[in-house]
Design brief:
The complex is a heterodimer of chains A (about 300) and B (about 375). Chain A has about 300 residues and is of the alpha/beta class. Helix content of chain A is about 45%, strand content about 15%. In chain A, a hairpin with a 3-residue loop joins strand 6 and strand 7. Chain A is elongated and about 85 Å long. Chain A starts with 6 loop residues before the first helix and ends in a 5-residue tail after the last helix. The longest helix of chain B is centred in the N-terminal third of the chain and has 17 residues. Chain B folds into three domains: about 90 residues, no CATH class; about 200 residues, Rossmann fold (3-Layer(aba) Sandwich); about 40 residues, no CATH class. Chain B has 15 helices and nine strands. With about 375 residues, chain B is an alpha/beta fold. A six-stranded mixed beta sheet of chain B has the order 6-5-4-7-8-9. A three-stranded antiparallel beta sheet of chain B has the order 1-3-2. The radius of gyration of chain B is 26 Å and the shape is globular. Chain B starts with a helix and ends in a 5-residue tail after the last helix. In chain B, helix 1 packs across helix 4 and helix 2 runs antiparallel to helix 3. Classes of the chains: A alpha/beta (about 300), B alpha/beta (about 375). At the A-B interface, helix 2, helix 5, helix 7, helix 8 and strand 9 of A face helix 2, helix 3, strand 1, helix 8 and helix 12 of B.
Chain lengths: ~300, ~375
């Protein structure tokens, strides 16, 4: 097993990679990396689950392999496939050569050689050439079906995969594995048991300001603070879809584009469409605009 | 700390968690012990986060986890400091999920029926003894104690409803509709490279989700009991069934459907009815469902079966707007209202009237016999 990584050190390095992680997330990621075990990140849409994997890849200079899950995801799309066209071509070529007088034995192609193998993310993840050389992101695992979950379970257990035509392929260096889930269904506990777990909640105001300023360096500090406080206030309103960090970033960018220096009544209404995506939510936010604007200015209560 | 201490600590904490009803299990405890060995925590917050990422099964268990953390580590060190710590860490509020009862360990993958065709399509034939025949037409609320027990047993004979759709997954099939390169080439290897056998694949079929939303308030109780029994029978026979109960509060019963005994199910129902006789908050329950499971896609492509008499305690307008949302989140809505059995019934309850435009089927489901209509309606077949 490679050297363990220190939690605080990893946090600093993530920050330099443009990702603000809190103590809990940094611990989960450090444990996963140090013990070479997968980490499962859950949370509402837009809180930065996928970005965590991206930042992790940047930190370790690793290749990021992303597997977006969907129902009906099968081995051919997730693990490997054979290049059938090329295989047929090889057969035909061999046939035409052996039609001469030479012994046919010399020209039998190996149809399951590397050149015919198409490596999809799971198989590619086994091919890291150095420790921590690959980050495998299995995105939205809850969208895949039970069969795929069961397969992934095996894969995570020993980081090996058997290809009937080739035998077992095992990883020389284990990949860093990040699973994300939006909780559209409960994952199987057998899978969860094998992972470190972290729930990414909505960030505190301070952390959100940090994130906004890190991602949008040209953003005025006052505006960043306004947006973070207003987003926090919106999350208190029991909306259909509370704004995530992704929405806050969109909002801040929109406001900057509108040339606003602070978040005030003049720009609140026209920019609201970048944060809230349900008509009912928009209506509710408009109705309580004064309260939200007051909160944005840092007034409490 | 030496290796033994870490393992003992992790095992002890696992026990503390179990005492609080969190089933973390030995595998997680082993992981925790490894974490403690590889990344020894230098402070209390560090220990907390290490314990949490290794041992917390789900965010729903957070409150119990924190209590267990205090139970266990509180006795080791400065209890007051730890309590402040647990309070200070930014504990995220679990997302809108209704306060779910403790999960049962679900069956291992592969243990579930792989979506075998629901064998029986023909309507159930109620060839039973005469007393039972009488039972099959009697409204659930008029049954006495003994009859009710017999009725619950008979529900197992009601046809299990299920509708299929074609999946994106393919499987080899003799009369498949797509040429299978891989299979054909593999087969060709056996025949000296000649393509003799043609292999083909066909799309698999999958069951559509089925969700029961059951009003368990006072007047609905006998009917709710029967429909929930039907939900249990269905959940045992096929995958992708969920059931939620509501009166003043929405409670997810799904984890209890397959394995839990009646007493545990009843205890969970109690949680859905916070104040008895407080009436039903249909709109609020629908909203909780839409915002939680619904928005996350649990009902997509499936049928939602709603049991209620439509008496809304709060604003009936909310029922209308939430039904409109539900309409967009699922494929079919079946409303079961036992009052519909009376010939003179008119949907006058304001919640019912508001919901009516969004229904695909409106059935009574008040007796064993009419539960068959519910099964038909789930599959979109009118009788």
């Amino acid at each position: 097993m490679p050297e363990p990584v220190d939690v605080d050190d990893l946090r600093q390095r993530l920050m330099r990679a443009g990702y603000v992680a809190d103590a809990g997330l940094a611990t989960a990621l450090a444990c996963a990396v140090s013990l070479e075990r997968a980490v499962l990140l859950e949370g509402d849409a837009g809180v930065g689950k996928t970005d965590a994997a991206r930042a992790l890849a940047t930190v370790f200079g690793a290749e990021l392999l992303r597997l977006q899950c969907y129902e009906g995801l099968d081995l051919a799309a997730a693990a490997y496939d054979w290049n059938y066209g090329k295989q047929l071509l090889a057969i035909r070529t061999a046939e035409s050569r052996s039609s001469g007088s030479e012994s046919a034995q010399d020209h039998i192609p190996d149809l399951y050689a590397d050149e015919f193998l198409i490596r999809r993310p799971l198989l590619a993840a086994l091919g890291a050439v150095r420790p921590r050389g690959v980050v495998l992101l299995v995105d939205e695992i809850d969208r895949a079906d039970d069969e795929f979950e069961a397969f992934l379970l095996e894969f995570l257990a020993d980081f090996a995969m058997s290809i009937p035509e080739r035998g077992t392929v095992a990883a020389l260096h284990r990949p860093i594995v990040v699973l994300t889930s939006n909780r559209t269904r409960d994952l199987h506990d057998a899978l969860k048991r094998r992972c470190f777990y972290h729930w990414i909640g909505h960030p505190s105001v301070e952390r959100e300001i940090e994130i906004l300023r890190l991602h949008l360096p040209q953003l005025a500090p006052a505006l960043a603070a306004d947006v973070a406080r207003a987003s926090a206030a919106l999350r208190e309103h029991g909306l259909r879809k509370a704004p995530g960090i992704a929405e806050s970033l969109d909002w801040a960018q929109t406001l900057a584009l509108l040339g606003a220096a602070r978040l005030d009544a003049a720009v609140f209404e026209p920019s609201l469409g970048s944060v809230l995506k349900y008509p009912e939510d928009l209506q509710q936010a408009r109705a309580s605009a004064p309260a939200i604007l007051a909160a944005a200015r840092g007034a409490t209560g | 700390m030496n290796g033994l201490d870490e393992a003992a600590l992790a095992a002890g904490f696992d026990r503390a968690l179990r005492n609080r009803g969190v089933a973390a299990g030995p595998r997680r405890a082993q992981t925790f012990a490894e974490v403690l060995r590889v990344l020894p925590p230098e402070s209390a917050p560090a220990a907390y986060w290490r314990a949490r990422t290794a041992m917390l099964p789900s965010i729903d268990d957070l409150a119990a986890f924190q209590a267990a953390f205090l139970d266990f580590f509180g006795s080791l060190g400065d209890a007051g400091a730890l309590r402040r710590l647990v309070r200070s860490v930014d504990a995220p509020a679990p997302a809108r999920s209704p306060d779910a009862p403790k999960r049962e360990t679900p069956p291992a993958p592969g243990e579930q029926p792989a979506g075998d065709r629901l064998a029986e399509r023909a309507p159930t034939r109620w060839i039973v003894a005469s007393s039972e025949q009488r039972l099959s037409d009697k409204p659930f609320e008029e049954l006495d104690e003994r009859e009710r027990a017999a009725m619950l047993a008979l529900i197992a004979r009601v046809r299990v409803a299920g509708e299929y759709r074609t999946s994106r997954r393919r499987r080899r099939h003799a009369r498949g509709d797509r040429f299978d390169f891989r299979g054909t080439l593999r087969a060709a290897a056996r025949t000296a490279g000649e393509l003799v056998r043609r292999s083909a694949t066909r799309r698999r079929e999958r069951l559509r989700p089925l969700i029961f939303l059951v009003d368990v308030s006072g007047s609905m109780a006998p009917f709710a009991r029967a429909l929930l029994q039907y939900a249990r029978v269905t959940a045992v026979a096929r995958p992708r069934v969920r059931a939620l109960a509501f009166a003043t509060q929405l409670t997810d019963l799904t984890p209890l459907l397959r394995h839990a005994g009646d007493d545990r199910l009843m205890a969970a129902l109690g949680a859905a009815v916070r104040d008895y006789g407080g009436g039903t908050r249909i709109g609020a329950a629908l909203r909780a469902f839409n915002d939680g499971l619904g928005r996350r896609g649990a009902a997509r492509g499936g049928t939602v079966v709603l049991l209620s008499d439509g008496w809304e305690r709060d604003d009936p307008q909310l029922v209308g707007s939430e039904m409109a949302r539900l309409r967009k989140l699922c494929r079919r809505i079946v409303w079961v209202n036992p009052h519909k059995r009376h010939p003179a019934y008119e949907p006058l309850a304001r919640g019912m009237a508001a919901a009516l435009p969004y229904l695909d089927a409106f059935v009574s489901g008040h007796s064993l016999h009419t539960l068959e209509e519910v099964a038909d309606a789930i599959e979109g077949r009118a009788r």
